[in-house]
Amino acid sequence: MSGRHRKPSTLSDTTGSIALASLKVGIAAATVTAPVALAGTAMAAPSASASPQSNATWDRLAKCESTNNWDADTGNGFKGGLQFTDSTWKAFGGKQYAKHADEASREEQIAVAKKVQAEQGWKAWPTCTKKLGMR
């Protein structure tokens, strides 16, 4: 637990030194173990849950993007459950379903999203895919 930037402790009695040493060992073990356990969990999530073919993946993403509001249009330029811009919606064939993403069904939005994901990857939804461990 001692490092270059830590001031060494000095204890005069032996009992206190032993108790402090035990405490330091316990803290060091917890410090080393906890991040490893968390990292292992975070690493497993993307492969298990980020399949663009799974509707559950798109539902998770929509929950983050729009709180599962598939007809969302809050006036910020992003529409639908997966928050498409009109230009992205048009470029990936969304207009065959509806003029704007918020006017299309969940299934139609997912169909367009799969095309976007195939070309741009998960970074097309930068904040939520990172938050969900999908990239």
Automatic annotation (TrEMBL):
Pfam families: Transglycosylas (PF06737). Belongs to the transglycosylase family. Rpf subfamily. Residues 1-44 form the signal peptide. Gene3D superfamilies: 1.10.530.10. It comes from Actinomycetospora atypica. InterPro entries: Lysozyme-like_dom_sf (IPR023346), RPF (IPR010618). It comes from the Bacteria. Residues 54-128 form the Resuscitation-promoting factor core lysozyme-like domain. Keywords: Hydrolase, Signal. This is Transglycosylase family protein. The lineage of its organism: Bacteria, Bacillati, Actinomycetota, Actinomycetes, Pseudonocardiales.
